[in-house]
Specification:
InterPro entries: Chromosome_partition/occlusion, HTH_ParB/Spo0J, ParB/RepB/Spo0J, ParB/Sulfiredoxin_sf, ParB_dimer_C, ParB_N. This protein is an alpha/beta fold. Helices cover about 50% and strands about 10% of the residues. It contains 14 helices and seven strands.
């Protein structure tokens, strides 16, 4: 797989990121002698995952397909590893390692190279980005790892991968979502557009219920944006005051005395008002008689 010199999703950052040796890793060149390297057989038991691997999910059906191919024809392209003590860490080729184990192989062809942690992390991220192997959350986590572990700024990450800084910023913002909603994105139940719209909710406690509703009702992104706008503009609910025991007792006594509905609105400053309901002129006159009020 050769790297196309035309502009791609990775943009101009590719040229500055890789020297020839790094390009060979991503391209998985079988011609190891081009770099004066040898292909060796390594025991699968001593091979460990790339500690900087951003991809967390591997398609099991595809792994099983690859395992069947390996059983029949073997591993045609060597993996690339670096040595770490008595073990080897994968630089490129984790799918082939996993499939070889499924195929119950003992050994795998490999090229051993020497890379620093920073280069290895970049390699893992770039390889997966180049192959579109990362979902939106894994991509965001990969960008975050570059910033926290290698102290890159968003602008530097964007330059490395050939994207706009805003694309990196928008991706990293997804990590502010609740874990459950991030899982929905990784499982394909919500798109990145859905997720970005949900981030617009002012009350973060509404995100999970809103996500469940979106999935249940099959909302598109435009509908989600409308829902978020509605939730953000809903009037604040006024909490009703709980009447004091004195107010409750007095209301009951007055209703019994007047034989009608009575409402007492008492304020903390001692002020308030009493409302006495009447149903007709005759009912009003009855209440006035109770109050001993005579209106001529």
């Amino acid at each position: 797989m050769a790297i196309n010199n035309k502009k791609s999703g990775l943009g101009k950052g590719m040229g500055s990121l890789f020297n020839k040796n790094m390009k060979a890793v991503v391209e998985h060149k079988d011609d190891a002698t081009a770099n004066n390297e040898n292909v060796v057989l390594l025991d699968l038991k001593v091979i460990r995952p790339n500690p900087f691997q951003p991809r967390q999910r591997f398609d099991q059906d595809k792994l099983e397909d690859l395992a069947r191919s390996i059983k029949q024809s073997g591993v045609l392209s060597p993996i690339v590893v670096r040595q770490n003590g008595q073990e080897y860490e994968i630089i490129a080729g984790e799918r082939r390692v996993r499939a070889s184990r499924l195929a119950e192989q003992e050994n795998i062809p490999a090229i051993v190279r020497s890379l620093e942690d920073a280069d290895m992390m970049e390699m893992a991220i770039i390889e997966n980005l180049q192959r579109d192997d990362l979902d939106a959350i894994e991509e965001a986590q990969a960008f975050q790892a570059l910033m926290t572990q290698l102290n890159y700024t968003q602008a530097q990450v964007a330059e490395k991968i050939g994207k706009d800084r805003s694309a990196v910023a928008n991706a990293v913002r997804l990590l502010k979502l609740p874990v459950l909603v991030q899982d929905f994105v990784q499982e394909g139940q919500l798109t990145m557009g859905h997720a970005r719209a949900l981030l617009g909710l002012k009350k973060k406690s509404q995100i999970e219920p809103a996500a469940n509703e979106i999935i249940k009702r099959g909302f598109n992104v435009r509908q989600v944006e409308a829902m978020v706008n509605q939730l953000n503009t809903e009037p604040k609910t006024v909490t009703s005051k709980v009447p004091s025991p004195f107010t409750v007792a007095l209301t009951s006594e007055l209703e019994e005395k007047f034989g009608t509905k009575v409402k007492i609105d008492a304020h903390n400053n001692g002020k308030g008002k009493i409302e006495i309901a009447y149903m007709s002129h005759d009912d009003l006159n009855r209440i006035l008689d109770v109050l001993n009020i005579d209106i001529n």
